[in-house]
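hi!! sorry for the late reply, been swamped w classes. u asked for the two structures so here they r. pasted raw, havent cleaned anything up. first the sequence of the first protein and right below it the tokens
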Amino acid sequence: MSCCWLLTAPFSEIHRALLPPCCFAARWLSSCKVSRGLLHCYKLLCLPEDESSSPEEVKEAYLRLAKELHPDSGSARADAGKFSQVEEACRTVLAHLAERRRREEEGRRKRRAATGEEEEEEDEKQRRQAPQHRQYLSFEGVGMGTPSQRERQYRQFRVDRAMDQVLDYRRRSLEHQSSEDALTASEVRRTKNIKITQAIERLVEDLIQESMVKGDFSNLSGKGKPLSKFSHSNPYVDPMTHNLNRILIENGYQPQWIVAHKEIRETIAQLRADLLVFRVKLGEPLTPSKQKQWLLNCEAFRADLARLNKRVDGFNLIVPLLSQQMVHFSAERELKRALQAYQELREEQRNSEEKAGTGETGDPKGGLFTWVQNLFK
């Protein structure tokens, strides 16, 4: 080996030439041994050999094989030696993946650090070149130089921005149109039906307006009168509810609270009439026996009125309107009312007898009619 070659050759070639051949063979065998060991581990775990598996997939493969090869699993493939090999292979692969992840993190951190330094340098340059005067706060910070120059630059900036907005609007319009063209057949058919319906409605409306102009609706029967369809119905009630109510009414149905209210009114009217008739029947004057009969009848009236008040309580529980609720009937008030009605009846009878005795008539037609009735008696 000449000295000139030693002086001119690169250091790597000189190092390779001076080392014995056995060193290169040992290094190549060691690298192959590690690579073959990893491949063997991947094969033991039944994983792809391209080293693309994640730590989660490695753990799942280990658990699956452990269930089959563990001596305590009771499986037909249970083997302690293979289980040990699988466990060692899992540890090796996980360590290899962790080392690879660490190297990737270091490389990413270095790249981020380099990028951060570049960004800091750019920020520093911009900070040095940024204008600090208040006049540069106008025109949205656009432009450099004098105010007139910055105004012209700002106008050009606005023109460019408007053009960009127009192009963006056209692009979105084309995208919307393309999305409308991509409708399914059913949606297109439904859209056509809607358009046809709207066209028919417009046509009908035009014909109605034309007829109104010609005066075709001037001499219609029932003009200025309410529609018979809504003459007996509430306009705030939907047609279905109105028809159901009409059917129930035509078949004699009445709500329970209306029936109860009617029965209470009829009962109190009957009790008042019976009380008045009984008092008229007793006549004047009231002897002790008649007074006793009147008191007994009053007690019976009070009992009937107490039962009626219980029905009033039941009615108040079912009536839907608060304004329709009823108060209890007072026995003393009803008795006083019956006696007052009896006195008024006595006064009318006395006045009629006096007029009949004197021959005075308040109404000549009434007197003539009475005379004719007496004549035919």
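now the second protein. again sequence first, tokens right under
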Amino acid sequence: MPLEDGDPVRRRGQWANGEVSSTLWLGGTGDPLPQSTPAPDDSRTKAEGWEPGPALDDGDVTPGGAPQRAGQELGRREEALMAELSELVQKVVKSSSWWERHGVDISILACSFLLLPAGFLCLRSAQAIPFLVGVLTLGVVHHTLTVKGSHLASHNALTESKSWGKVWAIFFIELCSAFTVEQATYNHVKIHHGYTNVIGLGDSSTWKLPFLNRYVYMFIAPLAVPIITPLVALDLLRNVRWKAALRTLCCMFLGLYCHYWLLLHVSGFVSPWSALLCMLLTRSLLAHPYIHVNIFQHIGLPMFAADRKPKRIHLMTLGVLNLPRNVLLDWSFGHSLISCHVEHHLFPGLSDNMCLKIKPIVSQYLKQKKLPYNEDTYTSRLRLFLRRYEELMVHAPPITELVGIQ
């Protein structure tokens, strides 16, 4: 069954290849879906210059004469802010070259492909240092292709052609990542991006495993991501057409078998079990920051009920957080998942390099308009989650009550 805009929301599998996304622009974020469950609240983030105004209820008297009229006026102001910011960003995009819009990120992915032979050949060595270099090389390349590549391809940020965008999405998401394009794009783009931090929809709840304690979840469970991802994908194939399911199965098998075959015939592994263990090691090399980034940037920030959520500009700025730049994670995951996550949620169709380019404009505009621009360090968020794990990842704190957003 195809996934269309009007399809009912489906619950996502645990640890689905989360920041894998798609070609669809956010639409209808002002139209709530009828679902609601509790979720986490707040954290040590910096919502610079943003202060809540007085709450509006049935008894409030507004200058317009009615709470409803005041709400409509607030909505128009929010839409005007988003339109003004979009115009500023669009000017930058139009003045940018193809190299800036797509070329930089394509070059990073191409360099990663070129490093593959060196990685497999290093694993032939009986010496520890070359062998470890091979493991590190293949691990970084794997995450660059599966996280950065899949994310960009599914948002159609690698090309301006929808046809080629579909090809790249299948290649990066299904062949490299062992996941299904249809469910990845639906869950990430239409739900997570369309309803960011809306409880029961885009609240990142698929990343929660409440039966695990904090240390197991944060430091041991991520090692299972390479095993869990294809298993979740197989379960989700029930929700797609049989042709798409067959294509996904073929691509997943081809990608996994090629990795296994190269380890046996190029890297020289004799035992099938040692080859499989090496596959697990390289594919889980950056699984810890992958899981951490997915929870750090949303969970612990304001959450909203589906029938009471702000317009897009406030929804994205209140519920999204930027981490500092990091050379390894910038290369492997991309700027839009690390230091430019706010920019990415506001303008999801832009490439990593373009998100980095518009970052000064977006941050300056939001601070100038006294809108939140959340930033925090990786270590600070890690300490926060270890300290408040029960509250943020096990229990469900009350949702954020909407107040008069200034």
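hope this helps!! also noticed smth abt the second:
DSSP finds 16 helices and two strands in the chain.
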